[in-house]
Amino acid sequence: MEQKNKKERWLIFWILIAGFLFRVIGVSFGLPHLYHADEPILINHAMAYGAGDFNPHFFKIPPLVSYILFILYGIYFLLGAAIGLFSNPFNFAAHFITNPASFYLIARFFLGVLTGTATVYFLFCLTKKHFSYERALLTATFLATCFIHIQDSHYAYVDMPLLLILTIALSSILDLLDGGSKKAYVLVGFWVGLAVAVKYNGVFLVAPVFAAHYFRHRNFISAVTDVKIILSAFVSCLTFAALNSFSLIDFHFFYHQILEQGQAEHFLGWGHHFFYSLIGGIGLPAVIAGILGMIMCGVSLNTKKVVLSIFCICYYLILCVKSQQYARYVLPIVPFMLFFASDFLLNIKERWKLNRVSFGVLIICILTPSIAKACVTDWLFLKPDARTVALSWAKVNLDNHSKVALGPQFFTPRFSMDLTQITQKEREIGEKNNHLKTQQLRLKVLKEQALKKEDFQAELFFLSDEIKITNAFLFSTPRLPYNVNRLIDARIDYVVVSPFEKPRQIDFFDNLKQNAVFIHRVTPFRDGKQELDYDPYAVTAAPFIWHDLISRNSLGQVVDFYEFKRDG
Q: 171, 204 in Cβ contact below 8 A?
C-alpha cells in the first residue's frame, strides 16, 4: 500500500511539473513593453493602492485580486528595500514606471502560472475524492496539457484565480451530497462568495449548489425552506461584501459600473463558444468525449456527475445569451469538460475491455491537439514581439523628436514621448486643477528620463475615430482623425499603423499611400504577407486559432511605417 501511494504521489508530481513548465515557459513575453490588453487593469490598480486610497474606482471586475497583488507588491518592496534595490516608495514607483517588467512577472507568475498549476492539482483532488484515482490522474493530465488553460496561465488576470476557486468550490459542493452538515453549507457559502469576489461570473455556482441541495431533499418546497441553504446564501453575501466592501461604500458607482459592463455583453448565438472557444481551446476529440461523458452521466444518474454537468450546461447557456466573444469566457467549464472526457474514456475502456495500446491511442487523440497548440504558443511567447522589433527599427531609422501619428496602441510600438510633450501634459494637469497624483508622478519620472536623452523620443499623436472624449486618458492624447489632410496640417512626419485597421479605414489607407512614402514593414508572419485571415478575437494577446499560430514567427501584428516628404 505504501509503495502504491508513493507511486501515485510521483505520478501527480510529474503531471504538475509538466503543467508548470507549459505555463512558465515564455511568461516574460513582450516585457518590458505591455502588449496584453487587460493586464494593466489589475496591475495599475494594485500599484495605485500604494497612494492610500483603497477604493478601486473601477468595479467592472471585483477588486479582490488587485488587493492580493498589492500585498505581493508590498512584499516585493520590503524585500527590495532590504537588499538596497529600492531606497523609498518613490523609488519603487519610479522603477514601476520606467521598467515594469518585474511587476508584471510577479503578477503573471502568481496569478497565472502558480494558480493555473494549482488548479490542476485541486482538480485531481476533487476527482480522486468524489470519483476515482484513475479518473483523477487522467483529468489532471488533460488539464495540465490543455491549450486554452496553458495560454491564459501566461497572463496576469482574474481568470486563473477564478478557476482555482471554482474547482475548490465545486468539490465542496459535491460534499453536500455526502452528508450536508451545517458546517458543509457554511463552507460552500464561503467559497461561492469568494468566487464572486474574484470575478462576478462566479455567481453561476448557484446552479450546482441548488442542484446538490435539491438532490438531498428531492422536494422543492423542503429544499428552499431549509435553513442550511439560507445560511449558505447569507455567508456567500457576507463573504462577498467583506472582500469587496467598496461595492457597498460606493454603491451608486458600483451599480452603474455593473450596468455598464452588462451592456458590453450580448447574445452571441448558440455555436460561437462551442466551435471557436471550446473546440479551439481543448480540441475536437476532447469536446466530443466530454459531451458523450455528460450524456452517459445523465443515463447513469450519478448525482455528483449530474451536478457537474448542470454547472457546465447552465454556464454555457448563459454564455450564449450574455457574454463576449473572447475564448477565455469558457474557461470555467474547461476543467469539468475534461473530467467528463476522462470519465467517458475510462467507461469505454472498462466496457469494451480495451488493452493498453488501444486506450493509449484514445488518450493521444485527446492530448495531441492541445499539446501541439501549446508548444507553438510557448515558442511564440519566447520570440521578440513584432512591435518590439518595430520599435528597435524606429530608434535607428526615424528622426529623433519627430512628430509620429500612431494607430491603435495595442497594434503599434511603444514610443517614448519627448520632453516638450511631457511638459505640455504637466501644464494640462495643472490647468485642470486635478489631484492626479499617479499621473503627476509618472510625468515626473518620464521627464527625468527624457532629460537624460537615453532613448528615441517623439511627439506622439493618436489616430482615433473619436476625437472629442471628455475623459480621454492623458497618455492617449492628443488625438487626430483618420484623415490624411489633417495629418498634413498637423505637420506629422511619420505614420505608424497596422493593416489590421484597413477594413475599417479603407479611404484613409488609400489616401495615405498616395500622399506619403511607405518606408518599412515589420511582420510577424512567415510568408511576409499582411493579407491573412486575422483572428478578430485575439489581436491583443497570443493567437488562438491554429492557422494563425502556425503562420507566425512572432506575436503582434504587421506594423507599417509611412513618411510625409516635405520640400526643403
A: no
Nearest to 309 by CA among 319, 321, 298, 299: 298
Please say whether the beta carbons of 174 and 307 come within 8 A.
yes
Top pLDDT among 402 and 501 is at 402
Sign of CA dihedral 155, 158, 161, 164: negative
Q: Do residues 321 and 329 make contact, with C-beta atoms less than 8 angstroms apart?
A: no
- DSSP-based three-state secondary structure for 462: strand
Residue 380 has pLDDT above 70, yes or no: yes
Residue 437 pLDDT: 66
Query: Residue 433 — pLDDT band, cuts 50, 70, 90?
Result: low
Percentage helix, strand, coil for the chain under 3-state DSSP, each rounded to 5 = 65, 5, 25
SS3 559: strand
**Per-residue cell: 254:** 458600483
Amino acid letter, residue 24: V
Show the cell assigned to 93.
Answer: 514607483
What pTM, to 2 d.p., does this model score? 0.93
Residues 6+ apart with CB under 8 A from 124: 12, 15, 136, 137, 139, 140
Q: Are 19 and 123 in contact (CB under 8 A)?
A: no
Mean pLDDT of 518-534: 77
Rounded Cα gap, residues 437 and 431, in angstroms: 15
Average pLDDT, the chain: 90
497: helix, strand or coil: strand
d(CA 140, CA 338): 9
Nearest C-alpha neighbor of 445 from the set 101, 98, 99, 102: 98
Torsion of CA 259, 261, 263, 265, to 10 degrees: -140
Contact 498/557 with Cβ under 8 angstroms? yes
Tally Cβ neighbours within 10 Å of residue 61.
Answer: 21
Lowest mean pLDDT among 46-55, 119-128, 223-232: 223-232
**DSSP H helical ranges for 145-267:** 147-152, 159-175, 182-198, 206-217, 220-224, 227-243, 246-249, 251-263
**Angle CA 32–157–137, to nearest 5:** 115
* Choice between 334 and 423, residue whose per-residue pLDDT is larger: 334
Instruction: Give, in order, the Cα–Cα distances in Å from 28 to each of 34, 42, 248, 377.
Output: 11, 17, 37, 13
- CA separation (Å) from 413 to 189, 231, 460? 46, 53, 12
Identify whether 413 is preceded by a cis peptide bond (ω within 30 of 0): no
Residue of higher predicted confidence among 304 and 452:
304
Residue 219 has pLDDT above 80, yes or no: no
**In sequence order, which residues have a C-beta less than 8 Å from that of residue 93 and are 6 or more positions away?**
47, 50, 441, 445
| 8 Å CB contact between 563 and 395 | no
Most confident of 106-115, 429-438, 538-547: 106-115
Q: Which of 493, 149, 86 is nearest to 337 (CA)?
A: 149
Q: How far apart are CA 377 and CA 546, in angstroms?
A: 10
